[in-house]
Specification:
Helix content: 55-70%
Structural class: mainly alpha
Largest sheet: none
Order of helices and strands: HHH
Strand content: under 5%
Number of strands: 0
Length: 71
Amino acid sequence: MDPTLAILIGLAVCVAIGFINGGLTTWIGLPPFIVTLGTFSIAYSLVRIYTTATITDVPPALKFFGNTFTL
């Protein structure tokens, strides 16, 4: 997959999860902290289910956001 497309898909998924969190908080009235923990647990579980291999040789475009500064 093209790294730029992968980044855009990742950002779109994050925006969708943010809308779900906001909707559950405002429309249903659930506590924001509980909603965030719940959606985090769901997202983490899905990643653990569908990721079965170690990812190696990651393209530099995908490392950009993780390597923004050094200490």
